[in-house]
Amino acid sequence: MGDRFDRDEAMLLEALSDKVLHQLPPAVWKELFLGEGHASIHFEDRELTLVHADAAVPTGQAGSVTEHFYQELQRINTRHGGRLDPYVNAAALVTFEEPGLAVRMAMELQQAAIGIALRIGIVSGLCTLAFFRAQGRLWCTPLGRQPARAAEIAASAAPGGIVISPESFAPGEIHVRQRDFVETRPGFLDSEHDLSSLALDAEYEGIDIRC
After folding, report:
1. One-character DSSP codes across 41-107
2. Each residue of 116-152: pLDDT tens digit?
């Protein structure tokens, strides 16, 4: 059993190394894997809901349109209390502990998209969070199957659509109005920061509940 746990942790460390290397400044990777930061790394399993958004930017309009998308993403994410874990190439991943907040955030982001066609996927399930200290602060990011699954679900959506996995959907979740949005924060600790700080009504037609 001990060998299995060692292998599991080695795989998680490899996944974290790859993610940090591709998403964060090189100095962060060096601090974590070549310096004292390695001792701070630990992993924790939590039931989470992930929102993956892909933005299709029209040719020749990448500058201002992309900048507006990320401004709206930051604003709406802050409003709903998610943890933003930015990817590259006009994609984003947001982590929630409450599925209802994830659905509301996705709906508002889709409605705010101007000049781009968003494909959004929402999944829920057991997810591994990697915690580590870098630049004097505690950070965390999701690893494992769920982030990749969220990207796959998003890719299956029509342009301008949202696909929600069945486990993320509860009766009544879709039938929310803008005025019903509440300033509720998830159960993350104040000392935990999303990676973006280191890097950069009623029925909604575009929502599809997939099996």
Report:
1. -EEEEEEEEEEEEEEEPPTT-HHHHHHHHHHHHHHHHHHHT-EEEE-SSSEEEEEES-HHHHHHHHH
2. 888 999 999 999 999 998 877 788 899 988 999 999 9
pTM over 0.90: no
Give the bridge partners for 48, in sequence order: 125
Phi, psi values for residue 2, rounded to 5°: -60, -40
- Kindly report, residue by residue over 28-50, the tens digit of the pLDDT: 899 999 988 889 999 999 999 99
Domains of the chain (ranges; CATH) run 44-209 (3.30.70.1230)
Nearest to 196 by CA among 79, 99, 95, 68: 95
- Taking the CB of residue 171, how many other CB atoms lie within 10 A of it? 6
- Note whether 121 and 154 are within 8 A (CB): yes
> What is the bridge-based pairing of β-strands 192-193 and 137-143?
parallel
Name residues whose C-beta falls within 8 Å of residue 107's C-beta, 6 or more positions apart in sequence.
162, 176, 204, 207
Find the distance separating the first CA and the last CA of the chain, reported in whole Å.
34
